[in-house]
Amino acid sequence: MNIPMKKTGFAALAGAAALAITSPAFAQDAGVSAETQYILNTFSFLFSGALVMWMAAGFAMLESGLVRTKNVSTILFKNIGLFAVAGIMYYLIGYNLMYMDVSGWIGSLSLWSADDAAALGGDFSGGYSATSDWFFQMVFVATAASIVSGTVAERIKLWPFMIFVVVLTGVLYPITGAWTWGGGWLSEMGFADFAGSTIVHSVGGWAALTGAIILGARKGKYGADGSVHPMPGSNLPLATLGTFVLWLGWFGFNGGSQLAMGSAADVIAIANIYGNTSMAAAGGVVAAAILTQILYKKVDLTMALNGALAGLVSITAGPDTPTIGSAIIIGAIGGILVVVAVPLLDKLKIDDVVGAVSVHLVCGIWGTMAVPFTNDGASFGVQLTGVVAMGAFTIIASAIVWLILKFTVGIRLSEEDEALGSDAVELGLEAYPEFGKGSQRF
């Protein structure tokens, strides 16, 4: 098996650890066998992957709370559907395209299969089981697709969206991932993105932004005079629950990206990552709340929710090196950026239903560029190169896919269908039927 290079420096660390733990002296001193380390690393992948999978529930709750009642069932289906599609596509093509035999730009066009023969034969130098690694990487790709779902909600057709997810998760995301986590050309330059502020979040954000521009705004969102007509979400308690679920899942997203749990050093690193991740979110919430109070004389709950997510995205590129104080500042700047970016997109008449572009793209870029402030091994020039390269590729490739869909099967609901709501038109059911037209309450 070709061991993934998801974190710069991890391969060297794992190799050194594998050599060390085979030494009887090391085993006696540390009390940790090669097999035990293998088990702990595998467990970390599986447990962290389960936490990241739980983020799919967070996205579903957040998005369903921020769309209107008539579109809730559709957004729920999209979230469970895209997670299923992402897993299948990552198995069929995505994983090997991202990690297998990467030669600078792209990996292997082949079907993934697990190879644990060495470990079953008593050789644990691989570090962890093959399927645990595949599982952990797979749940990441679904996150990128979830970002697109919220941005283009309420006016996109269901099946063209799912076709786009097939291409994004099977081809587009794995290619840029191969440049970085797969050991490709950006990795060789020293690009640093520990858990994916750019590799996951900005890539998803660029794909979402491109789709929103090509798709156009919801009917009635913007007036001819440039005015913005708010379209409040259906359930803010649900959106708040979704935010907390995402906050919890992010510990697996960032903490699991240590990619090892077989030593005290690894566990200490994971603990620091957890702490930095949570406090960056806290900084984002407080900064967004204070800024909305200053600007609008009232606190905006949806901005506070997005402030938490902004802090989480911002710290994701480098959660391993800051102090707690630095993490709070990085997250707070993310929260400020969201408050600024959301109305800016509205001025540009780019309709982002849940604020995903502001959270994941804008803060993904900020988080990536912030890494050199706390990591001496990263440089601003290389970080910028990575941001621009992955952004340019994703914009061009996404635009091609969106436009092909637009001029073939069509991507937008008709005005009549949009007014009725995608639940009634495409699913034939409502999330809240007791509040539907003509309903009788007892």
Verbal overview:
The protein is 69% helix and 0% strand. The chain has 17 helices and no strands. It has 442 residues and is an all-alpha fold. The protein has helices at 10-21, 24-30, 34-66, 72-99, 117-120, 130-151, 158-180, 185-189, 197-215, 236-255, 264-296, 301-316, 324-347, 356-374, 380-408, 415-420, 422-427. It has one domain (33-110, 125-425): Ammonium transporter fold, CATH 1.10.3430.
| Poorly predicted ranges | 1-5, 7-29, 438-442
Biggest sheet statistics: none
Described by its quaternary structure, the protein is: single chain
Measured on Cα atoms, how large is the radius of gyration? 22 Å
Gap between N and C termini, in Å? 62 Å
Portion of residues in beta strands equals under 5%
CATH fold node name: Ammonium transporter fold
How many independent structural domains?
1
Tell me the overall shape.
globular
What share of the residues lie within helices? Answer: 55-70%
Total count of helical runs of at least 4 residues: 17
- Please identify the top-level CATH class: Mainly Alpha
Order of helices and strands: HHHHHHHHHHHHHHHHH
How many distinct beta strands? 0
Mean pLDDT level:
91
Give the name of the CATH architecture.
Answer: Orthogonal Bundle
Name the CATH superfamily classification: Ammonium transporter AmtB like domains
Structural class comes to: mainly alpha
